[in-house]
């Protein structure tokens, strides 16, 4: 059986490696002509690491991750506020609660788990046509390829999603994020490189954490906007405009912004749940299936969980089993990802609120993050149990 994955992002590459671990032939088609190192950090949380461990990728990813000792929340004036209990301290049972990773380094680590020739660059998917025995992929240059299963891991603007579910309108959250990376030698000693820190203020927030094993500081600054900012990791931003947004915030926030060599704008978008993710031979994962705003730090983790669940339920399947297995995959993922989407929306509303104090924002976020259902989830175990009950 051959699986074709459209998209070589975090979810697509994780799926490819996980499927190969289960003995399934995989090919990945990516529209970009090169896999560039996007200047942004992501966080692989406990649940993402657990899923990666299940398919033998955890150590590979931890090699490029950065250990952090603690998480700190502050008001925009610099006063400490409580951190939600759902963000537990490091213990033997939770060896790393959050693993910050440079997105490009994570992508390269996953790519390194695949044999040469698995990923084909410069192949933008234009259409997918389901057939009686699989699916036909039509590329922008008119060429075609056939596979038994096609997986759309091609992001929020997914071409495969259009085939599976039809057009679905995106909605702006009214928040824009500035992103950037700072070489640590440009920072003074007031910046603690052993922790993740969030400053909360009216309608704005500012997040920092180290990546590239402590060589770079990742920053994400959320501000309200009524503009249709591009949903892109690489749209250029204006450091001066960012500095103006946070000019009166407590030290070291303005100093961190001053150290930024460049910044990128990232519009935050969401959409209502799809009526379906799958047909008999085509399915979706990650943002193609369920785009999630970044306020819980779970976007990459949901894509990783999707990939591992999909690979688990397809293990040992015949071509005739595929429709049932894809339906099982979707049923396993729909409720959890929908809950993550909804909670992220609620968190976004708190972050952009202008009538709440930082303490009130923290209390609201604590309520959203309460419990262990996010970090303690075992995606592979859930999939194995469901598969055994078929």
UniProtKB/TrEMBL annotation:
User: What protein name applies here?
Assistant: Salicylate hydroxylase
Q: Which domain of life is it from?
A: Bacteria
| Database matches in SUPFAM superfamilies | FAD-linked reductases, C-terminal domain (SSF54373), FAD/NAD(P)-binding domain (SSF51905)
**Positions of the FAD-binding domain:** 2-343
Q: Which UniProt keywords apply?
A: FAD, Flavoprotein, Monooxygenase, Oxidoreductase
Q: Which GO terms describe its molecular function?
A: FAD binding; monooxygenase activity
Q: Which cofactor does it need?
A: FAD
């Amino acid at each position: 059986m051959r699986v074709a994955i459209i998209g070589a992002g975090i979810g697509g590459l994780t799926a490819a490696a996980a499927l190969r671990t289960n003995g399934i032939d995989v090919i990945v088609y990516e529209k970009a002509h090169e896999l560039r190192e996007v200047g942004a950090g992501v966080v692989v949380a406990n649940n993402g690491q657990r899923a990666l461990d299940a398919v033998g990728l955890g150590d590979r990813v931890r090699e490029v991750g950065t250990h952090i000792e603690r998480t700190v929340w502050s008001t925009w004036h610099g006063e400490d506020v409580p951190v939600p209990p759902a963000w537990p301290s490091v213990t033997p049972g939770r060896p790393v609660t959050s693993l910050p990773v440079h997105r490009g380094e994570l992508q390269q680590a996953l790519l390194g788990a695949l044999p040469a020739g698995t990923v084909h660059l410069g192949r933008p998917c234009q259409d997918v046509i389901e057939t009686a025995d699989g699916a036909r992929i039509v590329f922008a240059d008119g060429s075609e390829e056939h596979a038994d299963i096609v997986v759309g891991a091609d992001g929020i603007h997914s071409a495969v999603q259009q085939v599976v579910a039809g057009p679905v309108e995106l909605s702006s959250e009214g928040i824009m994020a500035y992103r950037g990376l700072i070489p640590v030698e440009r920072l003074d000693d007031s910046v603690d490189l052993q922790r993740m820190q969030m400053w909360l203020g009216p309608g704005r927030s500012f997040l920092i954490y180290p990546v590239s094993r402590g060589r770079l500081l990742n920053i994400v600054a959320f501000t309200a906007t009524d503009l249709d900012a591009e949903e892109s990791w690489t749209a250029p931003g204006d450091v001066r405009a960012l500095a103006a947004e946070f000019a009166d915030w407590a030290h070291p926030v303005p100093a961190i912004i001053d150290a930024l060599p460049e910044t990128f704008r990232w519009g935050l978008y969401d959409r209502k749940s799809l009526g379906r993710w799958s047909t008999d031979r085509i399915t979706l994962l990650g943002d193609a299936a369920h785009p999630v705003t970044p306020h819980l730090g779970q976007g990459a983790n949901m894509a990783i969980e999707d990939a591992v669940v999909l690979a688990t339920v397809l293990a040992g399947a015949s071509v005739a089993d595929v429709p049932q297995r894809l339906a099982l995959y979707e049923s396993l993922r729909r409720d959890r990802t929908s809950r993550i989407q909804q909670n992220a929306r609620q968190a976004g509303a708190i972050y952009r609120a202008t009538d709440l104090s930082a303490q009130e924002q923290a209390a609201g976020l604590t309520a959203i993050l309460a419990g262990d259902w996010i970090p303690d989830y075992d995606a592979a175990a859930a999939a194995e149990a469901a598969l055994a009950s078929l």
